[in-house]
């Protein structure tokens, strides 16, 4: 079901937010609220789809059949999560095809983290532990987001993602306890993925253009810096258990704040990658465009077949629409 | 496990390698599928096959030693499953040819092989997926029809190995022919060839050139760290 | 880029979690026809054994009420408390009622 054009009713909208209830697709909502959600959900969906690539890079080289099965299932989940999120975005009145076009033409973004390369097998572990860990820290509060379809998609996604982070941590643990070469591989991956993971929470609160409005609308529940701090506090002891070092000499416990302090983040790098100067921007979007373009004849064939079937057997086609199947 | 012993080692290895290698090929689609819904579908099939491969190989020996440390000539999969993905039509026709055969074979083995009963259900779904897509591609647009006919013809020589001695010529041919005809595709003339070099070698360890590169990619990391655990 | 010809319509998916439960809305997906919609739904929404049965309905075929509070659809039901069993006072000690 998609949005219609109900009469403007800001009072009901504000009452719904104040009561911590959910806004649903056919409710009246301010244009800016709708636009913010479309932007955020689309970016989230695009990140899932582009995020398949760095990990799929290692599926065919996974070093054991157990790891291979886990990795295929994880990359598959990412495609599924992209689909849930595109579905949530479509309830706001935009078609998936429009969103994919916007991605392919560079009008909408995906998370910058996926513009870094996966150079070794250990990167698969580092992505699971750090990148998925950061994503989960961001996503758990979104399960209470004020927009119903987005919140429901996030509940499903968070439930499924819990295995993603654990498999990454377990993978790194196996390397950290393995041979010298495996341990070096694990440390190298953590060295490269730590800082980009911290950047995933977005710019500092003082420079975050959308945070205040998004929090007022209860789309966002916590600020970028709050979530980043939560993530750092979680990771430090986990790194100790792994026996790996987080690449930040300034990282230390601050008794007064009750949190870990960390060193300065290189926001110039963040902005450069966001602008398109990351190591894999061209490659990632290029593969996405190619898959979509090369798949066009398949999508057209299936659509043409459906049209022919409708023309040939209108009665059968109508019957099919209500059919139930055991799965 | 006396019931398992009823299926001989060569057969287990052949079935296990079929599932392992086809799963690998299907997983190569990750991030490249023509539509997002098919990313999920192809990965499901790859995971089913990988699960079957792990059970079958474990009945013969250590699954990872068998997958990662055998040379090309020691693999017993049919050549059909190692054929490169090509376009989506190639992948679907390969799925059609193979899943029809695999379902029939698992059905025959079900009384002897505990895995086979579960695998029959999985494979029936793979066959259903392949049949539905064969219809849509064969009877879709002029372009999809042409691509699919090319795939039907190109992969036909590799089906001799499925229908040859000990194979299932009658049922396999009837089922595949019915689907191809329903899709408006031309069934290649005559029964699948059994004499060509290209057809019949896989079970004896004779493979096609792309298979060596598949193994190089699949095995290199595992082999680079002898004795390591992952 | 793909043209209009390649766009697949949207379907709403309803999954029965197990026998004895009603089908509930799980989400939506795209498919060219009902048969592939069912299969896509099975692959997408029951990967972890979440269902024993699936319905797919073309999104365009659903007619929905408006959730607007001013909507006359639901307000009248709210004041008919006599439809609920708790409306009636029954003497203590009367059982099976």
TrEMBL record, chain A:
Pfam families reported for this sequence: PaaA_PaaC
Molecular function as annotated in GO: phenylacetyl-CoA 1,2-epoxidase activity
Gene Ontology process terms (BP): phenylacetate catabolic process
Alphabetized SUPFAM superfamilies for the sequence: Ferritin-like
Biased composition (Basic and acidic residues): 12-21, 312-327
PANTHER family: 1,2-PHENYLACETYL-COA EPOXIDASE, SUBUNIT A, PHENYLACETIC ACID DEGRADATION PROTEIN PAA
A cellular component annotation (GO) from this entry: cytosol
Acidic residues composition-biased segments: 1-11
Protein name: Ring-1,2-phenylacetyl-CoA epoxidase subunit PaaA
Spans annotated as Disordered: 1-21, 304-327
UniProtKB/TrEMBL annotation, chain B:
InterPro entries the record matches: Aromatic_CoA_ox/epox (IPR052703), Ferritin-like (IPR012347), Ferritin-like_SF (IPR009078), PaaA_PaaC (IPR007814), PaaC (IPR011882)
Superkingdom of origin: Bacteria
Any one Pfam family match given in the protein's UniProt record, by short name: PaaA_PaaC
Listed SUPFAM superfamilies: Ferritin-like
One example of a Gene Ontology biological process annotation: phenylacetate catabolic process
One cellular component term from this protein's GO annotations in UniProt: cytosol
UniProt name for this protein: Ring-1,2-phenylacetyl-CoA epoxidase subunit PaaC
Organism encoding this protein: Streptomyces harbinensis
TrEMBL record, chain C:
InterPro entries attached to this UniProt entry: PaaB, PaaB_sf
Gene3D superfamilies recorded: Phenylacetic acid degradation B
A Pfam family the protein falls into: PaaB
Protein name according to UniProt: 1,2-phenylacetyl-CoA epoxidase subunit B
Organism expressing this protein natively: Streptomyces cheonanensis
Lineage per the UniProt record: Bacteria, Bacillati, Actinomycetota, Actinomycetes, Kitasatosporales
């Amino acid at each position: 079901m998609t949005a219609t054009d109900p009469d403007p009713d800001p009072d009901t909208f504000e009452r719904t937010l104040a009561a911590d209830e959910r806004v649903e697709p056919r409710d009246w909502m301010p244009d800016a609220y709708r636009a913010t959600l479309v932007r955020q959900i689309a970016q989230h969906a695009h990140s899932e789809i582009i995020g398949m690539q760095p990990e799929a890079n290692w599926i065919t080289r996974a070093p054991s059949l157990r790891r291979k099965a886990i990795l295929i299932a994880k990359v598959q989940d990412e495609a599924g999560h992209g689909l849930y999120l595109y579905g949530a975005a479509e309830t706001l009145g935009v078609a998936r095809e429009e969103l994919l076009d916007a991605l392919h033409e560079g009008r909408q973004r995906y998370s910058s983290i996926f513009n870094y390369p996966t150079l070794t097998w250990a990167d698969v572990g580092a992505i699971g532990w750090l990148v998925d860990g950061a994503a989960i820290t961001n996503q758990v509060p979104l399960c209470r987001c004020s927009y119903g379809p987005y919140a429901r998609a996030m509940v499903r996604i968070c439930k499924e993602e819990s295995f993603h982070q654990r498999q990454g941590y377990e993978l790194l643990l196996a390397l950290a306890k393995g041979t010298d070469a495996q341990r070096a591989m694990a440390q190298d991956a953590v060295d490269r993925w730590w800082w980009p993971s911290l950047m995933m929470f977005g710019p500092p609160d003082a420079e975050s253009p959308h945070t205040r409005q998004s929090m007022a609308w209860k789309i966002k529940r916590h600020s970028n810096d709050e979530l980043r701090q939560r993530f750092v506090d979680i990771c430090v002891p986990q790194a100790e258990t792994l026996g790996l070092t987080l690449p930040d000499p300034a990282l230390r416990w601050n008794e007064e704040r009750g949190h870990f302090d960390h060193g300065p983040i290189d926001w110039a790098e963040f902005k450069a990658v966001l602008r398109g100067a990351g190591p894999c921007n061209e490659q990632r979007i290029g593969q996405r465009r190619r898959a979509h373009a090369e798949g066009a004849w398949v999508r057209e064939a299936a659509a043409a077949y459906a049209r022919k079937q409708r023309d040939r057997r209108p009665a059968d086609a109508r019957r099919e629409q209500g059919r139930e199947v055991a799965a | 496990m006396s019931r398992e012993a009823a299926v001989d080692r060569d057969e287990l290895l052949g079935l296990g390698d079929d599932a392992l290698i086809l799963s690998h090929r299907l997983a190569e689609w990750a991030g490249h599928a023509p539509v997002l819904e098919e990313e999920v579908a192809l990965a499901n099939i790859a995971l089913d096959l990988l699960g079957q491969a792990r059970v079958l190989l474990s009945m013969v020996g250590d699954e990872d030693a068998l997958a990662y440390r055998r040379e090309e000539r020691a693999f017993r999969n049919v050549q059909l499953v190692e054929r490169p993905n090509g376009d989506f039509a190639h992948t679907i026709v390969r799925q059609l040819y193979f899943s029809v055969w695999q379902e029939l074979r698992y059905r025959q083995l079900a009384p002897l092989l505990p895995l086979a009963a579960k695998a029959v259900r999985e494979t029936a779904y793979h066959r259903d997926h392949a049949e539905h897509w064969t219809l849509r591609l064969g009877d879709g647009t002029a372009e999809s029809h042409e691509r699919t006919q090319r795939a039907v013809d190109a992969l036909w020589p590799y089906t001799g190995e499925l229908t040859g001695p000990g194979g299932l010529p009658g049922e396999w041919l009837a089922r595949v022919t019915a689907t191809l005809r329903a899709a408006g595709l031309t069934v290649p003339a005559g029964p699948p060839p059994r004499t060509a070099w290209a057809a019949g070698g896989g079970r004896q360890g004779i493979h096609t050139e792309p298979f060596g590169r598949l193994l190089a990619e699949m095995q290199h990391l595992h082999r680079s760290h002898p004795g390591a655990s992952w | 880029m793909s043209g209009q010809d390649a766009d697949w319509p949207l379907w709403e998916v309803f999954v029965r979690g197990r026998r004895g439960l009603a089908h509930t809305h799980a989400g939506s997906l795209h498919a060219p026809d009902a048969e592939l919609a069912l299969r896509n739904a099975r692959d997408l929404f029951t990967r972890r054994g979440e269902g024993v049965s699936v319905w797919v309905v073309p999104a365009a075929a659903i007619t929905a009420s408006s959730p607007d509070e001013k909507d006359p659809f639901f307000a009248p039901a709210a004041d008919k408390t006599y439809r609920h069993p708790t409306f009636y006072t029954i003497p203590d000690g009367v059982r099976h009622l």
